[in-house]
Design brief:
This protein is α+β, with helices and mostly antiparallel strands and about 260 residues long. The chain has helices at about 1-35, 40-45, 50-75, 80-95, 95-100, 105-130, 135, 140-145; strands at about 155, 160, 165-185, 190-195, 200-210, 220, 230-240, 245-265.
Protein backbone atom coordinates (compact mmCIF):
# COMPACT_ATOMS: atom_id res chain seq x y z
CA UNK A 1 0.00 0.00 0.00
CA UNK A 2 2.76 2.43 0.95
CA UNK A 3 4.63 1.51 -2.25
CA UNK A 4 1.52 2.31 -4.31
CA UNK A 5 1.06 5.68 -2.58
CA UNK A 6 4.74 6.52 -3.14
CA UNK A 7 4.43 5.58 -6.83
CA UNK A 8 1.30 7.72 -7.26
CA UNK A 9 2.97 10.65 -5.52
CA UNK A 10 6.02 10.34 -7.76
CA UNK A 11 3.86 10.25 -10.90
CA UNK A 12 1.88 13.28 -9.75
CA UNK A 13 5.06 15.17 -8.91
CA UNK A 14 6.49 14.26 -12.33
CA UNK A 15 3.38 15.53 -14.15
CA UNK A 16 3.25 18.75 -12.10
CA UNK A 17 6.93 19.44 -12.76
CA UNK A 18 6.44 18.94 -16.51
CA UNK A 19 3.43 21.27 -16.57
CA UNK A 20 5.22 23.83 -14.40
CA UNK A 21 8.21 23.84 -16.75
CA UNK A 22 5.81 24.36 -19.63
CA UNK A 23 4.22 27.24 -17.72
CA UNK A 24 7.63 28.84 -17.20
CA UNK A 25 8.41 28.49 -20.93
CA UNK A 26 5.05 30.06 -21.88
CA UNK A 27 5.69 32.88 -19.40
CA UNK A 28 9.08 33.63 -21.01
CA UNK A 29 7.50 33.52 -24.48
CA UNK A 30 4.80 35.95 -23.32
CA UNK A 31 7.46 38.34 -22.02
CA UNK A 32 9.11 38.25 -25.44
CA UNK A 33 5.76 38.88 -27.18
CA UNK A 34 4.77 41.81 -24.97
CA UNK A 35 8.21 43.39 -25.41
CA UNK A 36 7.88 42.88 -29.17
CA UNK A 37 4.50 44.66 -29.15
CA UNK A 38 5.99 47.51 -27.08
CA UNK A 39 3.53 46.76 -24.26
CA UNK A 40 0.49 46.98 -26.54
CA UNK A 41 -1.94 44.90 -24.47
CA UNK A 42 -4.47 44.56 -27.29
CA UNK A 43 -1.87 43.18 -29.69
CA UNK A 44 -0.53 40.95 -26.92
CA UNK A 45 -3.93 39.39 -26.16
CA UNK A 46 -4.52 38.87 -29.88
CA UNK A 47 -1.18 37.06 -30.11
CA UNK A 48 -2.08 34.63 -27.34
CA UNK A 49 -5.72 34.17 -28.34
CA UNK A 50 -5.13 31.29 -30.78
CA UNK A 51 -5.69 28.37 -28.42
CA UNK A 52 -5.09 25.78 -31.17
CA UNK A 53 -1.58 27.04 -31.89
CA UNK A 54 -0.65 27.19 -28.22
CA UNK A 55 -2.23 23.77 -27.71
CA UNK A 56 -0.09 22.28 -30.48
CA UNK A 57 3.06 23.87 -29.06
CA UNK A 58 2.37 22.65 -25.53
CA UNK A 59 1.14 19.23 -26.66
CA UNK A 60 4.21 18.61 -28.81
CA UNK A 61 6.51 19.72 -25.99
CA UNK A 62 4.89 17.37 -23.49
CA UNK A 63 4.84 14.37 -25.84
CA UNK A 64 8.49 14.78 -26.84
CA UNK A 65 9.75 15.33 -23.29
CA UNK A 66 7.95 12.18 -22.09
CA UNK A 67 9.46 10.19 -24.98
CA UNK A 68 12.92 11.52 -24.14
CA UNK A 69 12.42 10.53 -20.51
CA UNK A 70 11.45 7.04 -21.62
CA UNK A 71 14.74 6.87 -23.53
CA UNK A 72 16.58 7.98 -20.38
CA UNK A 73 14.72 5.38 -18.34
CA UNK A 74 15.65 2.56 -20.73
CA UNK A 75 19.23 3.68 -21.44
CA UNK A 76 20.68 5.08 -18.27
CA UNK A 77 23.84 6.29 -19.98
CA UNK A 78 21.82 9.27 -21.32
CA UNK A 79 23.15 12.18 -19.31
CA UNK A 80 21.63 15.51 -18.37
CA UNK A 81 23.47 17.27 -21.22
CA UNK A 82 22.40 14.64 -23.73
CA UNK A 83 18.81 15.00 -22.58
CA UNK A 84 18.91 18.75 -23.21
CA UNK A 85 20.42 18.14 -26.66
CA UNK A 86 17.61 15.69 -27.46
CA UNK A 87 15.06 18.33 -26.45
CA UNK A 88 16.77 20.90 -28.68
CA UNK A 89 16.84 18.42 -31.57
CA UNK A 90 13.12 17.74 -31.14
CA UNK A 91 12.42 21.47 -31.19
CA UNK A 92 14.59 21.97 -34.25
CA UNK A 93 13.33 19.21 -36.59
CA UNK A 94 9.58 19.66 -36.04
CA UNK A 95 9.30 22.35 -38.74
CA UNK A 96 11.00 20.40 -41.54
CA UNK A 97 8.09 18.02 -42.32
CA UNK A 98 5.73 21.04 -42.41
CA UNK A 99 7.84 23.67 -44.20
CA UNK A 100 10.49 21.60 -45.95
CA UNK A 101 14.21 22.37 -45.74
CA UNK A 102 14.69 26.07 -46.45
CA UNK A 103 15.82 29.26 -44.76
CA UNK A 104 12.50 29.82 -43.00
CA UNK A 105 12.38 26.31 -41.55
CA UNK A 106 15.99 26.69 -40.36
CA UNK A 107 15.10 29.94 -38.59
CA UNK A 108 11.91 28.43 -37.15
CA UNK A 109 13.86 25.34 -36.10
CA UNK A 110 16.45 27.49 -34.34
CA UNK A 111 13.68 29.25 -32.41
CA UNK A 112 12.11 25.86 -31.61
CA UNK A 113 15.46 24.54 -30.36
CA UNK A 114 15.87 27.60 -28.13
CA UNK A 115 12.38 27.11 -26.69
CA UNK A 116 13.13 23.41 -26.13
CA UNK A 117 16.35 24.34 -24.32
CA UNK A 118 14.45 26.76 -22.08
CA UNK A 119 11.84 24.08 -21.37
CA UNK A 120 14.39 21.40 -20.49
CA UNK A 121 16.39 23.80 -18.33
CA UNK A 122 13.16 24.97 -16.61
CA UNK A 123 12.26 21.38 -15.74
CA UNK A 124 15.60 20.66 -14.10
CA UNK A 125 15.52 24.05 -12.38
CA UNK A 126 12.04 23.44 -10.93
CA UNK A 127 13.06 19.98 -9.72
CA UNK A 128 15.38 21.78 -7.29
CA UNK A 129 13.00 24.69 -6.57
CA UNK A 130 9.82 22.89 -5.54
CA UNK A 131 8.28 26.05 -4.09
CA UNK A 132 8.18 27.63 -7.57
CA UNK A 133 6.21 24.79 -9.18
CA UNK A 134 2.79 26.06 -8.13
CA UNK A 135 3.69 29.63 -9.09
CA UNK A 136 4.65 28.46 -12.59
CA UNK A 137 1.38 26.54 -12.88
CA UNK A 138 -0.54 29.80 -12.35
CA UNK A 139 0.60 30.98 -15.80
CA UNK A 140 -2.12 29.00 -17.60
CA UNK A 141 -5.20 30.28 -15.70
CA UNK A 142 -3.69 33.78 -15.70
CA UNK A 143 -3.39 33.80 -19.51
CA UNK A 144 -6.92 32.43 -19.88
CA UNK A 145 -8.19 35.28 -17.70
CA UNK A 146 -6.27 37.92 -19.67
CA UNK A 147 -7.91 36.71 -22.89
CA UNK A 148 -11.31 37.65 -21.46
CA UNK A 149 -10.43 41.35 -21.41
CA UNK A 150 -10.65 43.69 -24.39
CA UNK A 151 -7.79 46.20 -24.27
CA UNK A 152 -9.09 48.26 -27.21
CA UNK A 153 -8.42 51.99 -26.82
CA UNK A 154 -10.90 54.50 -28.26
CA UNK A 155 -10.22 58.19 -27.66
CA UNK A 156 -12.78 60.85 -28.62
CA UNK A 157 -14.78 58.15 -30.35
CA UNK A 158 -18.11 59.08 -31.96
CA UNK A 159 -20.06 56.61 -34.04
CA UNK A 160 -23.28 56.33 -36.03
CA UNK A 161 -25.11 53.13 -36.91
CA UNK A 162 -27.94 52.22 -39.24
CA UNK A 163 -29.26 48.92 -40.54
CA UNK A 164 -26.80 48.99 -43.42
CA UNK A 165 -23.97 51.30 -42.36
CA UNK A 166 -21.53 52.19 -39.64
CA UNK A 167 -19.23 55.19 -39.27
CA UNK A 168 -16.88 56.41 -36.55
CA UNK A 169 -14.54 59.34 -36.02
CA UNK A 170 -11.78 59.29 -33.43
CA UNK A 171 -8.55 60.79 -32.24
CA UNK A 172 -7.05 57.41 -31.45
CA UNK A 173 -8.17 53.88 -32.22
CA UNK A 174 -6.02 50.96 -31.13
CA UNK A 175 -7.78 47.61 -31.13
CA UNK A 176 -10.96 46.39 -32.74
CA UNK A 177 -14.59 47.32 -33.26
CA UNK A 178 -17.23 44.72 -34.06
CA UNK A 179 -20.09 45.36 -36.49
CA UNK A 180 -22.77 42.63 -36.33
CA UNK A 181 -24.71 41.79 -39.50
CA UNK A 182 -27.70 39.46 -39.35
CA UNK A 183 -27.83 37.20 -42.42
CA UNK A 184 -29.86 34.38 -43.86
CA UNK A 185 -28.37 31.31 -45.47
CA UNK A 186 -27.31 32.10 -49.04
CA UNK A 187 -27.17 35.87 -48.60
CA UNK A 188 -24.45 37.62 -50.59
CA UNK A 189 -22.99 40.65 -48.84
CA UNK A 190 -21.07 43.42 -50.57
CA UNK A 191 -19.28 45.73 -48.13
CA UNK A 192 -17.61 49.08 -48.75
CA UNK A 193 -15.01 49.76 -46.05
CA UNK A 194 -13.38 53.19 -46.11
CA UNK A 195 -10.50 54.39 -43.94
CA UNK A 196 -9.78 58.13 -43.78
CA UNK A 197 -6.28 57.97 -42.31
CA UNK A 198 -4.97 61.16 -40.66
CA UNK A 199 -1.72 59.79 -39.26
CA UNK A 200 0.66 56.87 -39.86
CA UNK A 201 -1.44 54.39 -37.88
CA UNK A 202 -2.38 51.05 -39.38
CA UNK A 203 -5.76 49.46 -39.98
CA UNK A 204 -7.39 46.29 -41.22
CA UNK A 205 -10.56 44.22 -41.28
CA UNK A 206 -11.86 40.66 -41.32
CA UNK A 207 -15.15 38.79 -40.95
CA UNK A 208 -16.18 36.05 -38.53
CA UNK A 209 -19.18 33.75 -38.75
CA UNK A 210 -21.42 32.90 -35.80
CA UNK A 211 -18.94 30.20 -34.75
CA UNK A 212 -16.07 32.67 -34.58
CA UNK A 213 -14.36 31.30 -37.71
CA UNK A 214 -12.83 33.49 -40.41
CA UNK A 215 -15.06 33.94 -43.45
CA UNK A 216 -13.50 33.84 -46.90
CA UNK A 217 -14.05 37.11 -48.72
CA UNK A 218 -13.44 38.32 -52.26
CA UNK A 219 -11.90 41.69 -53.10
CA UNK A 220 -13.82 43.65 -55.73
CA UNK A 221 -12.95 46.70 -57.77
CA UNK A 222 -13.74 50.02 -56.09
CA UNK A 223 -16.80 51.43 -57.85
CA UNK A 224 -18.22 53.33 -54.88
CA UNK A 225 -17.72 56.88 -56.15
CA UNK A 226 -18.51 58.64 -52.88
CA UNK A 227 -15.22 57.47 -51.35
CA UNK A 228 -12.79 57.61 -54.29
CA UNK A 229 -10.71 60.25 -52.50
CA UNK A 230 -9.87 57.95 -49.57
CA UNK A 231 -8.85 54.30 -49.17
CA UNK A 232 -11.96 52.23 -49.92
CA UNK A 233 -11.97 48.44 -49.91
CA UNK A 234 -14.85 46.61 -51.57
CA UNK A 235 -15.33 43.03 -50.41
CA UNK A 236 -17.94 40.36 -50.97
CA UNK A 237 -18.74 37.19 -49.05
CA UNK A 238 -21.46 34.54 -48.88
CA UNK A 239 -23.41 33.50 -45.81
CA UNK A 240 -23.16 29.71 -45.81
CA UNK A 241 -25.33 29.53 -42.68
CA UNK A 242 -27.93 31.78 -41.13
CA UNK A 243 -26.75 33.77 -38.13
CA UNK A 244 -24.97 36.86 -36.90
CA UNK A 245 -21.79 37.60 -38.84
CA UNK A 246 -19.24 40.00 -37.36
CA UNK A 247 -17.36 42.47 -39.54
CA UNK A 248 -14.34 43.54 -37.49
CA UNK A 249 -12.38 46.70 -38.26
CA UNK A 250 -9.04 47.15 -36.51
CA UNK A 251 -6.79 50.11 -35.85
CA UNK A 252 -3.16 50.37 -34.83
CA UNK A 253 -2.91 53.76 -33.10
CA UNK A 254 -5.01 55.16 -35.92
CA UNK A 255 -6.46 58.68 -36.09
CA UNK A 256 -9.21 59.48 -38.57
CA UNK A 257 -12.52 58.05 -39.68
CA UNK A 258 -13.98 54.69 -40.63
CA UNK A 259 -17.01 54.33 -42.86
CA UNK A 260 -18.64 50.97 -43.58
CA UNK A 261 -21.67 50.29 -45.78
CA UNK A 262 -23.07 46.97 -46.93
CA UNK A 263 -25.64 45.61 -49.34
CA UNK A 264 -27.35 42.25 -48.93
CA UNK A 265 -28.56 40.35 -52.00
Amino acid sequence: MNLEITFNNNVMEYILNKLAALGLLVFIMCIYIILGTEFDLYEFTESISNIKVWGLICGYALVMTVLIDLVRYKWREVTYKTSILLHCLAGFIVFFPIMGINLFSLIAGSVGALCAFIYAFSYYFLEKKKQLVWISLLVFPLLLCIRLFDFTIKEDWTEEKTKSSFSAEFERFNGKNEIPISLKKGDVVTSYISFDQMNEGGYGYHILDNNGKLVEMKELEDTFGEHRDIDTNVIQFNAEKAGIYILIVTGDNLKGKIDVKWEID
